[in-house]
Fold these 4 entries.
Entry 1:
Amino acid sequence: MNLNKKILISSLLSVFMFVAIFLSVVSCDTNNNGKTEEDNEANKEAKINKSQKEAKLLVLASENYINLINYSNYIKSKNYISKKTKSLLKSFEFNTTERLTNLKELSKHELVLLPNYTNTTFTDTTEVEINQNIYLTKLNIMISNQINLMNKLSEESNKISISILASEAEDFLRQNKKNIENIIDKS
């Protein structure tokens, strides 16, 4: 009888251990550190929405860079633009193209498809020669829009590489905005 008691006790102990292990595994699978399946879905959806917003900002930044480059070329093509202004625009265009290239490289790593460099046609409303300040003022407004967009991109992104690129672009654009304002003020 003593032997039967030992067998019964060991059987009960085994069943108890099996139930305890089973319950601990099941509770870990469903609990997931206190998060429900709905919380996990909400987190996934929030990450997707944030990534989509970031991708849209990258596309807008790319389109704005393309427009800045094209408008800069358009201004340079005018006969009555001073050599100093053309020189500034040439430097601005070169550096903006470089920043666009960096943005495209970064977007490849982020798996975001950006528009290609295309020419945009700008037309004057009149055939009369216009003071270069009118063109530079419009360019300044375009630069301000790009600064605001880069600021928003820097604030919205949790990715260090995007934040650094946006911050450097803001500094570059602010400096060129000041340079253009100096030319406008001296004219």
Entry 2:
Amino acid sequence: MYKKLLCVLLLAFSISACKKNNNKPACELQACTAMFAYLGIVYNNHNGDAAQVKDVTIVNLRTGKTIIPPSYPPAASFVAGFVLIASDGTKDEFSAEGDDVRITATSVTTGQVNTTILKISNGCNCHVTKVSGPETVTFD
């Protein structure tokens, strides 16, 4: 009788251990590097040439908070049409799982407004990373 009860209790504990684990073991064991990551998006016109944009807004859809774009690093060159969206300096704005972020920009040439969604993670609080979304956005 005691053996059956012990087996039932052991089975119950085993099953309860299979529930979803909310901890992020990879984050707990992660070692960060000294690099400083940047994340951006490239805007092109319908010909594939770099497009100048204005009125760029970045909103974290999880928090509803508008994110101030990071400053461009000194002595660094980016491709034409590149807009800096996030960096390791702004990684605290994002969760480890990744947040949907709405980027809205207006073409200087045509006045067209484009809205794009990227999913951005804080990389377990080490380096900002893009989880999903386009590398390049093209205005019509």
Entry 3:
Amino acid sequence: MKMSYQQKLLLACLFLSLFAVTVAIGPWLKHRGEAVSSRIFDRPIEPAPIQLVSHPGRFDHALVSIVGQCVIRFEHMVVQGSSDPNNWTSGVWLVLNEDQVDHWETLEPKSCRVTGVIRKGPGGHMGRWPAELTPVRDIIFYNN
């Protein structure tokens, strides 16, 4: 079957359109694909805290592992990108039970890796936080 000039032109336009759409949404698909993969294979993804704060919906219900600064004390349980414990715009609230708080309590910011399931916010104490980790599976502290 021979293709006419118009059919070839139409096919080329369709191909170029598909290519352009793929290039345009590629970065979004990367994070969305990681989040979906995390939900299916139970393998954590590792976004930076600022990525979670900026776009919590991209990671909603995904298993994540975050490296940042942890502060765990009464009414303040967070992992964040900055060491300022009052900078709630750079962090994620941690939903911990009483035993976890007693086990991991740290009044000063400490370097840590937290693994848990992200839920987009508002969340945390008084709904000030853009996202929260619940449940928290593990926290590993590093020497500062």
Entry 4:
Amino acid sequence: MAMRISPMIPTVANLLLAALWGFSVFAGWGLEAFCSEDGCADRMDEVARVSSLFATVAACCTAGAWIAPCARATRVVSPPSWSRRWPPG
């Protein structure tokens, strides 16, 4: 019996992480939480630019997993040949 996980679970998780990232970068959550000194906003902008590269890669991977038919194909994996001979005797 194979346990199947709906593809919606990781998709919703990715969307929630994307929303959290977006709020921290674009809505000013990061500035409010971490910046209390002068010049901090400039550093946070630099960090936001770098993290946007990783966010773009993550979005492309998520979209690619949904678009590629081989990523959605159900594969049946047979047990190894030695398990058919177990227990010995």
